[in-house]
Amino acid sequence: MTAVLSPRDRRSLQRASLKHRLAEKGVDRVLWLLVPGAVFVALLFVYPFLYGLQLSFQPKGGGNPFQNYVTFFSDPYLADTVWITLRLGLPAALFNVLASIPIAFRMRGRFRGKRALTTLLVIPITLGTVLTAEGLLAFFGPTGWFNRIWMALGADEPARLTHNYWGVLFSLIITGFPFAFLLTLSYLSGIDPTLEQAAATLGASKRQRFRTITMPLLAPGLAVTFCLSFVLAFSVFPSAVMVGNPAGETHVMSIAAYETALRDNDFAMGSAIAMLMALVMLIVIGVVLIWRTTLYRGATGGKG
Amino acid sequence: MSGQQRFAELHLDRVQRAFGDTVALKGMDLTIKGGEFVALLGPSGCGKSTALNCLAGLLPLTGGRITLDGKRIDDLPPEKRGFGMVFQNYALFPHMSVRRNIGFGLSMRRTPKAELNRRVDEAVRLVQLEEHQHKFPAQLSGGQQQRVAIARAIVLEPPLVLMDEPLSNLDAALRLEMRTEIRRLHQSLGLTTVYVTHDQEEALALADRLVVLRLGEVQQVGSPEEVYAHPVNRYVAGFMGYRNMIPVTVTSQDGERTTVRADGVELVGVKREELTEKAVAAVRPEDFAVVTETGANTLEATVEIVEYHGREQAVQARLRNGGQLHVRTSSRLASGDTIRLKVPVERVLVFS
Hints:
- Chain A: It is a multi-pass membrane protein.
- Chain A: One of its GO terms (cellular component) is plasma membrane.
- Chain A: It is found in: Cell membrane.
- The complex is a heterodimer.
- Chain A is an all-alpha fold.
- Chain A has helices at 7-24, 35-56, 67-74, 76-106, 114-122, 124-127, 129-140, 145-152, 165-189, 193-201, 206-234, 238-242, 253-263, 267-293.
- The longest helix of chain A has 31 residues, at 76-106.
- The two termini of chain A are 45 Å apart.
- By secondary structure, chain B is of the alpha+beta class.
- In chain B, a hairpin with a 2-residue loop joins β12 (257-262) and β13 (265-271).
- The termini of chain B are far apart.
């Protein structure tokens, strides 16, 4: 080796040393690639959010900055939207998570037709709400197949399953289930199957294995799945209009916010409703995540 | 620990397991006596793990039957068989402390709390994990996890303990230590054990009886000494350290004594199978002695590669006919040396 370094070598040495000096201060230059993304999020999410927040404290008529919030809770038509939306979002998310457990459980192993079945279960995710709503109207409507069979079985009048609560709930389940199922399946596949085998050799029955091994290891994942499913269901809008009763029993928060802001031209009040919507979601997610901290959340691979 | 349910005889009768078109286990017959330590030995894909999983009930049989003291058990699910199993990856429950892992089987059996605690204490002491009993598996080293897995399986005092390559994930020093530990536990508790391994040294060191498997078929069953000194075929011999397999032609046979010849080679050995003209002469690397004079059963070779192993050297030499020899010797040799290697007649095994 010669003592004299070519200019190129010297440059590369300096470059390396800069990288090392930065690394020592905990700076990873590759992470700087995230800057455009961070700016994008700030512009398109944080700014509108903060703008909406301050707007909600500037009521249209002036005066008390909390006037919009006072109006919301003193007008039963608006205040009820919280309950109406929760009544849709919580059962839909809960059903989707609970229904995905046994199906994902069965779908873990290898069997013939697994891919076809998975595709079938996941297709609704690609349909979009409008197509689902049309399908629901055709199937569950007063002259749809379901009611034709229902009447043929001797019912006096068609079952009312569209343009009300049930229509929206069905729509949320159809579009939300594939999502919950895929998440649950991936969490379940992450649990080492030899753990259950070990429990079996130690005398645990199928039910005991599920209760003592699978469920505790799956629960943190289910909590996250529930949160995401709930957020999706809580912000329901198109299906609440198309297969629901948007002026009555499915007058959800997003519809209230839309109507106030864009029909009544009260942007400040609309913002206040949107903020309350975010608050309700945060409270539900917060409760679930706090419960999640009480669970085991480490590796589920079984290996040390 | 005392009073475990001893059995007299576990019998595998033409046990077969197929996966689709491939048969992993081809009609295995084996009788295991209570208190025995049996090792299933073979390379990966020989069916040894399949056999173990069939015994545990984790894999249903596709043929044959398993009986315990005459009672058929192969139709029972694993939780009804009550055999303890130690998995290769330990399969410790990551969300339970060491104590709860060890007590899991007892709590599944609804053992009263006082008895459960007493027995877990005893098991923890037995595998020397007193300091770690309240930790979680992720906080333990590989060897400690292994001890938990063993304690969890034996705390139930099962009639049969199944071990699936339990030492293969440990480093060399720990492997030796745990090997002694397993042997010690077996001797003090007398638990009947079936141990699966691909490491012949481990099997020889631990087992009372060895079962050598190949491609789903039992090749030889015998004591470590029998299998080590008297392998029944060239496959078992190769597995038991007969690294030199010299292709030869049989020239004469006199009872067991067989004379064989290859280009530049003439050896007298012991016949181990019915022979035709073509045969192989199997010799262990350590059975060669480096000598100076020519004579009977002496081969001439050129040293090619020498590896230093402390007391001994591992030497790769080439015969004049081009064949390769592995030799272990305490003589100091160097690459390029021409050497003479003598091997006793009874240490040359002739297989077809």
